[in-house]
Structure prediction request, 171 residues.
Amino acid sequence: MKPKKVSESKTTMTEMVMPNDTNPLNNLMGGNLMRWMDIAGGICAGKHCEAFVVTASVDHVSFQKPIAMGDIVTLEASVTRAFNTSVEIYVEVFAHDMKGGNPRRCNAAYFTFVALDDEKKSPIKIPKVVPLTNEEQKLFDSAKRRRELRLILGGRMKPEESKELKELFLS
Ligand SMILES: CC(C)(COP(=O)(O)OP(=O)(O)OC[C@H]1O[C@@H](n2cnc3c(N)ncnc32)[C@H](O)[C@@H]1OP(=O)(O)O)[C@@H](O)C(=O)NCCC(=O)NCCS
Prediction:
């Protein structure tokens, strides 16, 4: 399977916050933003894996800056690293007002998607990622320890089985 560049699956999605998307304070509701992040991440993962993908997990998300009704929200999703059948996608969220003013970075999160076969049942092997820029390399290198942490928190790995985290905390 031919390894792929990050740029081959980079995905940008733009939305305008409409009344249906808001909470009682007239700001974008957190759950709706997470939905958009999941969609942008899923498109990116599907492109990288060239397969059906499902969301396996989402790491910590914090909502740092409110996004008001009428604001324009841009979501940028990039693959950081592919493992065996799962891939980590970094989704960043930016917003500005309708005239392009008050541009800001609002939040970001790491999503894990698993690629499935055409019957949408069994996980399948996926292409590796080739990091090219310094930033891509940093995200690629740190992906292993994020993976260990999420597998431990998800009850799929024992803390004593971790390598990267042990090195980080015990070295
Ligand atoms: C994700 C899913 C396909 C994994 O199935 P599974 O039988 O546990 O498969 P495996 O044990 O073979 O694991 C497959 C991959 O998923 C990864 N994975 C599974 N659970 C994970 C989790 N909670 N966090 C991160 N990765 C996870 C494994 O590490 C493995 O990755 P790797 O092959 O790169 O090492 C399955 O749990 C599922 O279908 N979940 C529901 C997905 C869904 O419907 N999402 C939408 C929201 S409801």
